Amino acid sequence: MYYVIARGDSTYTSQCYDGCTPVTVAAASGVSGIDLALPLAAHIHGTALGPDGSPLSGIYAYAFDVNSPNQYRAEIGSDGTYSLTVPDGSYTIGFIDWNLNYISGCYSTTSAPSLVTLPAEIMLDPACTRVNVMASGPTSPGEATVPEVRMALAGVTPVGTNVEVTPAGVSDVTITFSGVATGGITTATVSQELGGGQPTPSGFQLSSSPTYYDLSTGAKTTGPIEVCLPYEPWAYADPSLVRLLHWNGSRWDDVTTSLDQVNDVVCGTTTSLSPFVVAQSLQQLQSITFSPLADQTYGAGPIALSATASSGLAMTYSSTGPCAVNADTLSISGAGTCTVTASQAGNDAWQAAAPLANHCP
After folding, report:
1. Domain 39-150, classified CATH 2.60.40.1120, yes or no
2. Is 264 left (phi over 0), alpha (psi -120 to 50) or beta?
3. By CB count within 10 A, which of 127, 195, 338, 341 is most buried?
4. What pTM value is reported for the model?
């Protein structure tokens, strides 16, 4: 099967035979009657620049047909101008940087400077202004000029608190800075292997094709940093054990704080940026069961503690307040509130359990 397309020029637009229906040709035979009539071309012109008015490089302008899935594109020239050759119709005009250094968007008369920032897949959003052209009719012009648009840099990290940023170079990673004292640009470099000689994370299983995210920022930041990365659940034997690992300069640290198995996103908290990778822990999860402590009277005898871990591993206890723990026995030493925390540190087969605290009275 073949798609038959006749390429146009500045006078005629390209056309795909029968709405791009495949044409079947049997071996040692031919097919006739594959005729195409190329419509006269209309043109949509304009200028797209960077936020400082400088020309863009490697950016494409698109005309999205409002009434069909057809789209037409032209690379923006070194002077910032573009010219789209299209058939008669109504279009939204989008500007897309597939390198993700600039934020993609569409031309809109409702925004300044004439650009609404939207993901590339929704360029037919009602916020995008329609541009009508008709080369073959007397009522609409065959030429349309779109006002100048300015594309914003991706990864801009402004001064503030709880600043959430999508780094330049990616579209599915978020970084939240607790504080930004001096603004800058945050970037991500994505690769299938690391160039710094980092070892394979011990105790974890990478996917068959791991993705490393080398994150950096030119902003001066303070406090913890939350990093959220996407993952493919099918790439792991047990997606519930997916973890976010961070290279701290000498080893891989598990910095995981949350795992969203609905949206397939894993998040973690760190104090610095460098390579991150998603991996599956080879240790099983465990939890602690610790029944509430009954109120105790000062002077009563020792109390046996009976918390258990789902792993079956031995428990450890710690206490605060007018009490003391010796192995798995609690002694009350005075009046007040005694808090006992049960812990299980894990081993090669089990992750550390989340500690669980009880108190009396």
Report:
1. yes
2. left
3. 338
4. 0.66
